[in-house]
Amino acid sequence: MKKNIVFDLDGTLLDTLEDIAISANFALVSLGFQPQESAKYRYFVGEGVFKLFENIFASNVQTPELIQQAVTLFETHYTKQFNQNTKLYEGVSKMLSFLQKRNFKMAILSNKPDSFTKMCAMKYLRQWKFDVVYGVREGVPRKPHPRGALEISELLHVKPNDCYYLGDTMIDMQTANSAGMIAIGALWGFREENELKEHGAKYLAKTPSEVIKLLAEV
Ligand SMILES: O=C(O)COP(=O)(O)O
After folding, report:
1. ipTM of the predicted structure?
2. Ligand 1 centroid distance, CA of 111 (Å)
3. 78: DSSP letter
4. Could you tell me which Gene3D superfamilies the record lists for this protein (predicted)?
5. Residues 17-59: pLDDT tens digits?
């Protein structure tokens, strides 16, 4: 039985875009740079907070020190206002309740720092049972490296190929495939259908209800 599912967080369960953009723009402005439009963060987010600023700063200005300064400013700010605009995507609540009722084992694997991932799960997702909630942890390579996903399947005592993995970016599709999990692309998140298809989505879901339909027969 394949009643196991790993979820990405940003852009899949939670619409975190606005709060990430606000805190990242706070960091940029504090360091004397122009803020970026929120919509652009759809493409900046996905590979962790360090890479977020690497994606933003032009290559001729970025140094590891500048990026670290931006990360620190971002993290301090985000800790205080991560919950101002963030919300569950429509239909996510119903999807999680359905899967829980069907006895799916559920886990979260994010490229957000581990403490923020747990903070968001605690604030928005505490009514559902997640067996594992992992963000980026010291010493563990981030997605698309399969390590985190494989650790989760071990902790759940299931084979990776008995796990679905639902995410909204190419990083998620690559992670699922490199871990040997079944990749489902969430089309309500930050990226487009083509990206998810090109990077190995086995199934695509336009809405969380479509995930319910897909997994109803498992
Ligand atoms: O914060 C990020 O860079 C991405 O987070 P996610 O893996 O939950 O989409």
Report:
1. 0.96
2. 4
3. H
4. HAD superfamily/HAD-like, Putative phosphatase, domain 2
5. 999 999 999 999 999 999 999 999 999 999 999 999 999 998 8
